[in-house]
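Hello,

Our lab assistant flagged a job as stuck in the queue for most of the afternoon. It eventually completed. Since we weren't sure the result was trustworthy after the delay, we are filing this so someone can double-check. Below is the sequence as submitted and the structure that was eventually returned. Let us know if re-running is recommended.
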Amino acid sequence: MKVILTGATGFIGGEVLRFALLHPSITSIVALSRRQLPTKHPKLTVLIQNDFLNYFDSILESCSGAEACIWSLGVAKSLSPEQNRKINLDYTITAAKTFTEQLAPRFEEGKKFRFMYLSGMLTERDPKKSLWFMKEARLIRGEVETKLVELQKEHEKSLLTYIVRPGGVQATNSFFPGLLQPLARAITVDDLAAKMLDTAINGHKSQVIEVDVLRDEGKALKKELEKGRK
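-- returned structure --
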């Protein structure tokens, strides 16, 4: 299976890339990035994409045959409201529309393109709701989610969108006790990456996947993958 990945230079996207390179079902990974990646692998093709609002024919041709996109691109640090919306909202929706309209029509009848969006646990879709902290980030993610749900309805024959909502994402070897993770709504990055990749490959029964499901199913999937490598 061929997949598209963004955010591969980041904490979560980098771990998704690591798992994708190890997974036997993944035969090809197209990483869209503003800069080259240090990782070299026969499965991996890095395409330099400086403008995530426009996709040249050469980029789309290299993405041809991809069955899913794992969208891990975004910014959490403080930017101007305009830049925040551009990177977190406009880039995401433009990619989802472009891949659906340009890649999905090449599939055999009945097959759908899977687009996965990395959201967050505290995302809020209601723009009128009063929020006491992280208001801008939570509302922008909520707007992205709403638009992706609408996009799937518009392209119901060719698109499936999945929204993952992790809580506090920790390093794989975090000292945070595993027994406290459910109470803190936390998840390790490897468990999250394992579940994101599996959803891209096999889909999921729910469009929105919350942190507890991500953690529990991710742990089991990670063990299966590690067992298969022995």
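-- support follow-up --
The delay was a queue issue, not a problem with the job. The result is valid. The longest strand covers residues 159-165. The chain has a mean pLDDT of 90.
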